[in-house]
Write a structure and sequence with these properties.
This protein is α+β, with helices and mostly antiparallel strands. The chain contains 2 helices and 5 strands.
Length: 143
């Protein structure tokens, strides 16, 4: 019984070692592939949503425009707010959409809001970003 128990213990240790080595190989291979990923300046990418607050949140944020690369970190620009942030390459994946996502805003119109302050904020934001054409003429504020 003692030999059998020793034999089973040895096999369990070998299996455990193999599992750990396989996990490490997969991890290294994944990160090497990610770090070799190229995102040219001007390309669009998505950023992994690291928020753990709500499992119903979208797993990817963006798209963002690649502005600069510093080693394994990329400087990304939000297409709406134009703010930039640094993100590690392992948190990125390419955006698969066609063209510039902001071009789709051409089809949108701004409906009037009951809340006048909110309406003014939306109009000011659109004007600051050169998107006045999205505001129907009847809702444009007199300058």
């Amino acid at each position: 019984m003692c030999n059998r128990q020793r034999y089973l213990t040895e096999i369990a240790q070998k299996v455990q070692t193999e599992i750990i080595e396989e996990r490490d190989r997969d991890y290294l291979q994944h990160h090497e592939q990610k770090e070799q990923a190229e995102y040219p300046i001007g390309s669009l990418v998505l950023v992994k949503n690291m928020s753990k607050k709500d499992k119903l949140l979208t797993p990817w944020l963006g798209p963002y425009r690649v502005v600069n690369q510093e080693g394994a970190r990329f400087e990304l620009q939000n297409l709406v707010t134009l703010k930039t942030r640094l993100v590690h390459v392992t948190l990125l994946k390419p955006f698969q959409g066609s063209g510039n996502p902001l071009d789709e805003l051409e089809d949108l119109t701004i409906e009037p809001y009951d809340n006048v302050k909110r309406n003014a904020v939306v109009h000011r934001y659109l004007e600051q970003h050169g998107l006045q054409r999205l505001i129907p003429p009847e809702y444009r504020q007199a300058s």
